[in-house]
Amino acid sequence: MIAEIAALMRSEGLSEITIAAFSRQVQRVAAGETGTIGEAQIEPIAELPDADRLTEQHRQRGVRALSQAVFIKLNGGLGTSMGMDRAKSLLPIKQGFSFLDLAALQAKAAGVPLVLMNSFATRDASLAALRALQPGPSALPLDFLQGKVPKLARDSLLPVQWRDPSLSWCPPGHGEIYPALFSSGTLDALLEAGHRYAFVSNSDNAGAVIDPAILGYFAAEQLPFLMEVCDRTVLDRKGGHLARQGDRLLLREAAQCSPQDQDSFQDITRHRFFNTNNIWLDLQAVRQHLVENGGFVDLPLIRNAKTVDPRDPGSPPVYQLETAMGAAISVFPGAAAIRVPRGRFLPVKTLADLVRTRSDLTELRPDHRLVPVPDIAPVQVELDPEFFRHVDDVDQRFCGEAPSLRDCTRLVVRGDVRFGRGVVCRGDVLVQGPRVVPDGAVLG
Predict the structure, then answer these.
(1) Terminal-residue alpha carbon distance, the chain
(2) CATH top-level class of 2-344
(3) Contacts of 244 by beta carbon, 8 Å cutoff, 6+ apart
């Protein structure tokens, strides 16, 4: 079984390190592991160091360390859940700037290089856009490539064959960053250029920027790994949370939770902190660990039960084996977490998120940080899924701009509705179609 999987992956040009890491995961599944982390095995986290309490000394230490820092964006995702078929980072989100535009400008403002972890699907378009933003030769690689892994038939654990060959493969999760950095040579290139500290975040989180105070804290404490976490709210109940197991921290994702533990998993008063996927890495410590462990980090297993065609529930049942970058918090001795303001977590996962981000609920600062407007409670946005399926629907039905939501508590759009420019929503707003909301209308 392992030999057959390895041969298939070699035929696709995947690295021996990626093959070894995936083979290890398959062996664990074959031995009966499910990746489940039971509630009885862990303890909740009560308190953490707080970024808001870092000192001027931390900030100054971080400013001095900027020359050793690098900004890495996880850029492997297509915006398929939002109806996109290209790199999600190329989606315009604020004043015409895309995620990738903002990341490049944020890196430039901080004086650090930007490096992308691309997938096969995102690489060409993203590199073309990045070269346009950063013309001229670069002393460092602009990107490195994450691999792919075969989907496995649940009954045999052998690679599944399907009429659409592309659906026989899946991303290995962002835990792939460790072997991909190593096998691509990017890790050594960064270290040789004097870059010891890496700040890693998702490409669709424009709130994740280099913070000198957090960098200074990370360097001063000589940590190998630091995870930024935020307070969980009811909106974050299904996201991975931080916990403790013995003397180490760990990350538990929803896919690692059994049905009987779902209530405790979603209890935001018990498990208070969720992973933003903003991670700080000491690249020297990462390299040492990789050299000592065959080029990969043996991360906790995430076994996702799906069908080979996610749009066809009748297609063959498969396992997708993944790992999470943040799960390394349980692997690196001395790894830590820090509580950060919610403004460092501004993801755009849904079309409703896109409307909120494009609205006046966020502001674009001169240094190209995207920040939430202070002292405004979260605004609930519900869009009719029949008429808002794709990004293009949002562009067309909102005339390229979102309504003002600063004085809104809830916006619900039902039916065929088109908004003019300069629309203002106040309070609890329900708009039912068919309807055209004229320019400058005040709703609520």
Answers:
(1) 62
(2) alpha beta
(3) 42, 43, 44, 45, 250
Bridging pattern class, strands 152-153 and 317-322: antiparallel
Residues of the chain with CATH 2.160.10.10: 351-443
The pLDDT-based confidence of 68 (bands split at 50, 70, 90) is: very high
- Radius of gyration in angstroms for the set of CA atoms belonging to the chain, rounded to a whole number: 22
Helix (H) or strand (E) holding 442: strand 442-443
- Report the candidate in 282, 37, 363, 328 with the shortest Cα–Cα distance to residue 173: 328
Q: Do the Cβ atoms of 230 and 342 come closer than 8 Å?
A: yes
What's the mean pLDDT in 286-299? 93
| Token pair 């390895």 in the structure block, residue | 6
Contact 266, 238 (CB under 8 A): yes
**Is there a contact between 225 and 335 (Cβ–Cβ < 8 Å)?**
yes
Question: Minimal CA–CA distance to 26: which of 325, 326, 303?
Answer: 303
What percentage of residues in the chain have a pLDDT greater than 70? 100
Strand 169-170 relative to strand 149-150: parallel, antiparallel, unpaired?
Answer: antiparallel
DSSP string for 85-124: -SBGGGSEEETTEEHHHHHHHHHHHHT--EEEEE-TTTHH
CATH 2.60.40.10 fits 351-443, yes or no: no
Q: Which residue has the higher pLDDT, 134 or 126?
A: 126
DSSP state of 315: S
What is the secondary structure of 382-441 as a DSSP string? EE-TTT--SHHHHHHHTTTSPPEEEEEEEEEEESSEEE-TT-EEEEEEEEESSEEEPTT-
Give the relative orientation of helices 99-110 and 123-133 as an angle to the nearest 10 degrees.
50
- pLDDT at residue 101, rounded to an integer: 97
> CA-to-CA distance for 310 and 164, rounded, in angstroms?
12
Q: Which residue has the higher pLDDT, 310 or 342?
A: 342
Global pTM?
A: 0.93
Domain ranges in the chain with CATH number 3.90.550.10: 2-344
Cα within 13 Å of Cα(106), Cβ side: 30
